[in-house]
């Protein structure tokens, strides 16, 4: 099978534990691109952050960001797909998260709002210290998220809730509550977080939209991932590859398990199945 599109999750997959893409992996990706294979970053990250890594690996294909809520060309303003959370639902999620003792973060395409500089907003504040001006993410700490939502309307792609280690059990309880009581999509990229999007949003649906956009069959797609939010992508792609460090649930539905993200697992599988080396 000649694969025409490679879809790659970022954290825990394309990026190693230092949040880097190794030179070996960059070289393999460049060789795949020279063969005409489209390289697609498919991540839960905000678009601006995903764009920065797409620049590093040299992909010219669109980026799937916010777990599939937003698909956009990296170097152009063309938005291929966007799906925002219903305003009333968003306010309910904010309120219940606060009641459970958490500080939710709400995301637009380039801005993160929170009531406290913690977790995502703190991490991206540190990120802003290391990247060029056009790749910085707007961080806004506000008094009340509800006021922002009422002002901005349906302009938000997702909600992120994160926990400290001693809060993880409670976080999982909140995740279960939202999943069972609200008509939304809920996914985790790691045990200490979950993200909430519109019910139609998933990486798998976004990959399907992008495949139709390019006229590529699902059998011609190879994808890489490591966690729960990659599951729908695995169910759609013709050849899903789990990382060696992936959750067991993801490994079970993979066609192949490669090496870990710290041992260039993505590059090794691309050489084996795409470049046939």
Automatic annotation (TrEMBL):
Q: Which GO terms describe its cellular component?
A: cytosol
One of the entry's Gene Ontology molecular-function terms is: magnesium ion binding
Q: Does the keyword Hydrolase apply?
A: yes
Q: Specify whether Hydrolase is a keyword of the entry.
A: yes
Native organism: Thermobrachium celere DSM 8682
A Pfam family name for this chain?
Answer: Hydrolase_3
Tell me the keywords, alphabetical order: Hydrolase
* Source domain of life: Bacteria
Taxonomic lineage per UniProt? Answer: Bacteria, Bacillati, Bacillota, Clostridia, Eubacteriales
Stored NCBIfam families: Cof-subfamily, HAD-SF-IIB
For this entry, the protein name equals Hydrolase (HAD superfamily)
Xref: InterPro entries: Cof, HAD-like_sf, HAD-SF_hydro_IIB, HAD_sf
User: Gene3D superfamilies attached here?
Assistant: 3.30.1240.10, HAD superfamily/HAD-like
Matching entries from CDD domains are given as: HAD_Pase (cd07516)
